[in-house]
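About this split. The held-out portion is used to measure sequence recovery: a designer receives only the structure tokens and must propose an amino acid at every position. Recovery is the fraction of positions where the proposal matches the reference. Here is one held-out target exactly as it appears in the evaluation file.
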């Protein structure tokens, strides 16, 4: 769980794992809205709070800006909600686009955030070892059931310190030549075999780029829509890890999926930020 703050002026939403970090997030964001209340003249820096009568003048520019950010944060501190989850915005039933490279460290905090709050976690990934390492390092306890679907053979020697006997986990290896329909059918069968009624499901798809690169735009769009519909029956969140700038066709597919995607989130230094 994380802390969440939403700006009532522009719809910006941010989540942080450490509530104390939120002071920097809120202060910086509100300063951007009210930059005209900060001025410099005659070697001095002045600010006037847009919410109250407080005003300050100082010679130390960095100190004055930091003080202003802290002051702005104090005006919204009571609107920071603790113990929240990104999926709360979609009611644990929808599609979340994650703007982060699937294989990079940047994405790990968000994928463990989702999987750690689910009873059943299913991940379709080309790098199963890094996913196992991320889950084992970040979570106090794995989900009730974890199924990792990989297009490559799992190298158990890469994670010799992970005790799989102590976790209800399974590694499923896929033939990389399978079509999107066949991959989707495999995921659907996994959901049928492992999901318990009323349980949250976290489905990670970190092979989005591979699907787009290997097949035409129409089939890639159909694949995501099919998974979204299948997961809606089970009740859970589908996460697509994408880098829209990596390939022109990726951006094209995302445009077609605009109405399918319920929420877009970026990762910023371990913080999660909602994008329009």
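Reference sequence for scoring:
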């Amino acid at each position: 769980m994380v802390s969440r703050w939403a700006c009532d002026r522009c719809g910006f939403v941010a989540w942080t794992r450490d509530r104390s970090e939120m002071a920097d997030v809120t202060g910086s964001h509100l300063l951007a809205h009210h930059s005209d209340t900060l001025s410099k003249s005659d070697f001095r820096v002045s600010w006037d709070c847009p919410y109250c009568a407080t005003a300050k003048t100082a010679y130390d520019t960095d100190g004055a800006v930091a003080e202003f950010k802290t002051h702005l944060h104090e005006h919204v501190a009571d609107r920071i909600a603790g113990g929240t989850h990104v999926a709360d915005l979609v009611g644990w039933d929808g599609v979340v686009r994650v703007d982060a490279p699937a294989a990079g460290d940047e994405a790990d905090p968000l994928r463990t955030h989702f999987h750690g709050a689910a009873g059943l976690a299913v991940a379709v990934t080309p790098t199963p070892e890094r996913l196992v390492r991320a889950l084992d390092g970040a979570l106090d306890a794995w989900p009730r059931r974890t199924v990792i679907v990989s297009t490559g053979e799992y190298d158990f020697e890469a994670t010799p310190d992970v005790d799989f006997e102590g976790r209800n986990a399974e590694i499923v290896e896929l033939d990389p030549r399978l079509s999107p329909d066949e991959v989707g059918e495999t995921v659907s069968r996994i959901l049928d075999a492992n999901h318990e009624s009323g349980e949250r499901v976290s489905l990670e798809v970190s092979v989005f780029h591979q699907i787009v690169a290997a097949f035409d735009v129409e089939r890639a769009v159909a694949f995501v829509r099919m998974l979204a519909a299948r997961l809606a029956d089970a009740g859970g969140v589908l996460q697509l890890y994408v880098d829209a700038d990596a390939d022109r066709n990726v951006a094209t597919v995302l445009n077609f999926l605009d109405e399918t995607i319920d929420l877009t989130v970026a990762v910023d230094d371990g913080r999660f930020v909602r994008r329009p």
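Annotator remark: The first helix runs from residue 22 to 33.
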